[in-house]
Amino acid sequence: MKHSFLTFWLVIGFLLSYQWSNAQIAADSLLPVRGFCIGSPKPDRVDEFVQFIEKELAPRQVNTLILRVDFNYEFKSHPELRDSIALSRREVKRMVNACQKNHIRLIPQINLLGHQSWASKITNLLRVYPQFDETPHVKMPEKYQWPNADGLYCKSYCPLHPDVHKVVFELVDEICDVFEADAFHAGMDEVFYIGDDKCPRCSGRDKAELFAGEVKTIRDHLAQNGRTLWIWGDRLLDGKTTGLGMWEASMNTTHRAVDLIPKDVMICDWHYERPDQTPVYFAMKGLRVMTCPWRMPKNAVLQLQDMVKYRATATKAMKDRFHGMIQTVWSDAGSFLDEYYGRKKADDSENTASNCFRALYAEIGKTVSN
Predict the structure, then answer these.
(1) In a domain, 10, yes or no
(2) Is residue 339 a contact partner of residue 353, using CB atoms and an 8 Å limit?
(3) What CATH number is attached to the domain comprising 175?
(4) Range 211-216, long-range pairs (CB < 8 A, 24+ positions)
(5) 80-135 pLDDT per residue, tens
(6) How far apart (Å, rounded) are the C-alpha atoms in residues 369 and 179?
(7) Are 278 and 271 in contact (CB under 8 A)?
C-alpha cells in the first residue's frame, strides 16, 4: 500500500513537471525573453519582493528580472558610493535564490554614462567624484524645471576621463558577482550631455563615436568574465528623421552609433506613448532586441502582438534577433508593490505599470496556450 501511494505521487510529480516543461518550451519558442524591470527594493521590502517573485513573476513564466540597483548595495569596493540605506549581501542572495529556484535570469543594472543626476540632486558617483562630471560648469538648480537654459535633464560622466572606468568597473564586477549574473544592464538612456564643447577631453569629438566607444568599453570589460551587455536603445534611434523626438530617440547625433557598436549588445527598445515598430530597425542592424512597455496596457498588447508577428514572419537570419518583451516599472519595488496590491491609488486608474504588467502577461499566456 505504501509503495502504491508513493508511486502515485511520483507519477503526479512527473506529470506536473512534464506539463511545466512543455509550457516552458512553448513560451521560450514564442518569446525567448519574458522580462520584468524594476528598481531594487529597500532592505525592509526584500521579503515582500521575494514573495512577488515567487507568487506573481514565476507563475506568469517571467524568465528575466532586471533590477535597477545603482547604489542600493553595501559595496565593499567603494563603500563611499553606497546609499545611506542599502541592500546587504545576504538580502541580495535571498533574491538570487528565489530567481534561481524559479528559473529566472537575474540581471543587475547600474546607470552608466548618463543619469548621474536627477532633478536638483547629483547622484552618488558625481557627488563623490566631481572630477568625472562631463559638464562641471552646469550647476544644479535649487528648483529643477524643464526646459531650462542649460539643457539640463541628467548629468553624465565623461567617458574619456582616465580614472572613471576603474571606479565604475569595480562596482560593476562586484554587483555582477553578488548577483551571480551572466549579464549586466548599463542603462545609457537619455544621454543629453556628451562631447560637450567645454570638456577638455571630449570637445570637438564625434558624439556617435564617443557613445559607441563607451558601449564598446563596457561590453569588452564584461566579456572578459563571459557577461553580456544590455542597454536601452533610445540613443541609437534618429529622433529627427523618425519624428520620435529627444526622449525616445536622439537629437544629438548619437544615433549613428548603431553601426559602430558590437552586435552582441542586447537592445531594450522602450516606447511608452505609441507602439512604434523600431524593433525591426534594430534587427536589421544585426542587433538582438526586446520591446519594453511601461504603463499603457493597450500599447503593451499591441507591442506583444507585433513581436510575435516579427518572429513568425521574419527571415531565418532575422527571427532570433526579435528576442521578446520586458515590462518596465519606473519606481522602486516598494512603491510598485503598494500600487500592485491596491495599497496606493495611482492618478490614472487605467494606465499604470501594474495594469500594464497584468495585461501584457495575460496576453502572453493566451498566445502561448493558442
Answers:
(1) no
(2) yes
(3) 3.20.20.80
(4) 211/113, 211/235, 211/254, 211/257, 212/257, 212/260, 212/261, 213/159, 214/112, 214/113, 214/159, 214/188, 215/186, 215/188, 215/257, 215/261, 215/262, 215/265, 216/260, 216/261, 216/262
(5) 999 999 999 999 999 999 999 999 999 999 999 999 999 999 999 999 999 999 99
(6) 32
(7) yes
In whole angstroms, how large is the CA radius of gyration of the chain?
A: 21
pLDDT band at 11 (very low <50, low <70, confident <90, very high): low
Which DSSP symbol is given to 41? P
Task: Please report which confidence band the pLDDT of residue 13 belongs to, taking 50, 70 and 90 as the band edges.
Answer: low
pLDDT of 16 over the 60 cut: no
How far apart CA 98 and CA 106 sit, in angstroms, is: 10
**CA 68 remoteness from chain centre:** 7
**Other beta carbons less than 10 A from residue 16's beta carbon:** 10
Q: Which three cell numbers stand for residue 321?
A: 534577433
Q: pTM to 2 decimals?
A: 0.94
Note the pLDDT of residue 169: 98
Q: Does 129 map to a domain?
A: yes
With respect to residue 161, please indicate whether it lies within any of the assigned structural domains.
yes
Q: What is the pLDDT of residues 258-317, one digit of tens each?
A: 999 999 999 999 999 999 999 999 999 999 999 999 999 999 999 999 999 999 999 999
| Selection from 79, 90, 82 nearest residue 46 by Cα | 90
Residue 13 lies in a domain: no
- How far, CA to CA in Å, does 35 sit from each of 184, 282, 290? 14, 19, 9
Residue 267 lies in domain: 35-369
Find the DSSP H helices in the chain. 2-30, 46-52, 89-101, 124-128, 164-178, 207-223, 239-242, 279-284, 297-313, 316-319, 333-340, 353-369
Domain count for the chain, please give it: 1
Residue 328 φ/ψ, nearest 5 degrees: -105, 145
pLDDT averaged over the chain?
Answer: 94
